[in-house]
Amino acid sequence: MKGLYPGSFDPITIGHLDMIERASKICDELIIVIMKNPNKKYEFTEKERKELIEKCTAHLENVTVEIGEGLTIDYAKNRGCHSIIRGIRAIADYEYELSMATSNMKLNSEIETILLVAKPEYSFLSSSIAKEVAHYGGDLSSFVPEAIVKDIQKRLEK
Ligand code: ADP
User: Please, what is the angle between helix 127-135 and helix 149-156, to 10°?
Assistant: First the structure.
């Protein structure tokens, strides 16, 4: 099974990485794709986000990272993916993820959305919180993967 894990990853967090590690066990091949969400403003460029993800996923042989555009469901089809993987941290994510998954089902019923539940220890974790901690010089080690703590600190600390 070939899976697609789309998101903003601005930047990748420990929560994202846990999802990637778990999804890489379910899928034979997993593509992480950085997609544009028109409702979001990004701190890191797509190229920076791709490099940060690659640094954190170097140990996962069946995982690759791409920069995408257009509709996620079309991207999944064009890349030959059978499923779209997304994560749910709390009830707040559920509504959004459910409407996305249902819309994608309408657009293409061949591609299944798989929703993975976040580990409780990561359910508070978001890229926004990681950026806020970094801006104020806080300890990032519980927020972003060890491999990129210094990169994020250097880039965001004021
Ligand atoms: P998007 O802008 O597409 O929501 P994000 O990078 O914020 O992109 O999130 C990508 C996916 O990862 C979403 O399905 C989100 O619910 C999930 N996710 C985000 N943070 C975590 C976390 N801490 N644990 C598990 N899943 C998460």
Answer: 60
Is residue 40 annotated as a catalytic residue, yes or no? yes
97, two tokens: 């993820």
Q: What is the pLDDT of residues 1-52, one digit of tens each?
A: 999 999 999 999 999 999 999 999 999 999 999 998 888 899 999 999 999 9
Q: d(Cα 130, Cα 47) in Å, to the nearest integer?
A: 19
Question: Which of these, 23, 37, 18, 15, lies nearest to 127 by C-alpha position?
Answer: 15
Predicted TM-score of the model (pTM): 0.96
Q: What is the CB < 6 Å shell around ligand 1?
A: 7-9, 13, 15-16, 19, 37, 40, 86-89, 93, 118, 122, 125-127
